User: What shape does this take?
Amino acid sequence: WRARFYDNYDGTSEWSETIAFTTLTDETYDVNLNGIPDGQEVDTTTDLDENEIPDLSQDDILSLNNIALNTQIGIKKYKNVIAIESAKILDLNNFPDIKNNPEDIPFGLISFRIMVRHPGDEAAIKICLSEPAPEEALWYKYDSLTGFYAYSDHVIMSHNRKCLIITLKDGGFGDDDGVENGIIVDPSGLLMPSVLRETNDVVNRTELSEAAADETEGGCFIYSLVHR
Assistant: This one.
């Protein structure tokens, strides 16, 4: 590019020297506007909810490919969710160096934006994993003020540890924007409590109580994770 100056009398200056720059491909771009960054899209055969329909062909699930970890994670509508507007895997290097940043997250830290039926509604989503979650892994949320904190009071996990049901409330628990506006914004992910550098939210005991999920897809049994 180059530039020149025009004065009040339409007089012009000489052209400046030509300057060039190169832009890099941004994996957060969403050229096809499907709510998934182009660099994080799964392939056409991925079926994380195991219903024999490719995730890319469904409008009730957004699935993400974490190339660095070679894992995939899907966010699917479950209860009181009108739409999953967007989802992406976040880069931990862009987060402030707070005291309890994890060193590793098995499936990556994800952020999603969902629309609920009415402002203030409680809603539930289903998280689908490409492989079973590690035995000690729990669901943690991220807050810009306090960092990562355990969210297991609102999470149930399937018997095979490949799906989770997460409950959130618009403007309340689990909603990062804190406003009853019909939109829930949620940065969170599975991580091992042992990888937290320091945390005030210590898990004393995790009780696993078996229960059948109502309206489950695939007939899986679930365990509820309760922190004491």
